[in-house]
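> run fold YigZ family protein
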Amino acid sequence: MSPQPRYPIPAARFRCEIEVERSRFITTVQPVASASEAQAFVAELKAEFPDANHNCWAYLVGPPGSTNQIGLSDDGEPHGVAGRPMLTTLQHSGLGDTALVVTRYFGGIKLGKGWMVKAYTAAAQTALEQVPRAERIAWVQLRATFDYALVTPLDRRLAEFECETLATDYTDKVSLRLRLPEEQEARFRRMFADLTAGQGVLDTV
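> ok
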């Protein structure tokens, strides 16, 4: 089983903007399932805002706070003032599988390094607090084969395990293709064994 089989992710692409000392900071947040998806998102944003002074970015693939698959860039800003505070903010946001790009249009007033760290942190934080959230769930599919007499009793139990029926096949026995959260599988297998008195068959699809 995955160490964290379900966790919050952005529901969809989200964008917001703040202004700091006349510089515009446009933050775009995107759900991503891999490092390559994150890099493609960054490339897309750079193409969308080619005239921006900077398109700084950070991403995290995996559960909230994880460090296994991360990336960041200051995109020409002084080292450490953009990508690192953006990533730190992301890692403390409670979101997983997330990439964000902060696009900066310089407003004519130079910011010191301390102010720049605050500005990029605020830009990331504002977006990550407002982004609509969904849930990433690790699913497992099982094929359950059992006697006809147990169709109704089993059907009554499926909701307990957040279990959906994807397909049904009627031959000499009933065969159901089921989908349920990975974290529910062990409990479901125990219930199924009890319900069928060990006569039913459960295969991973």
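The mean pLDDT is 94.
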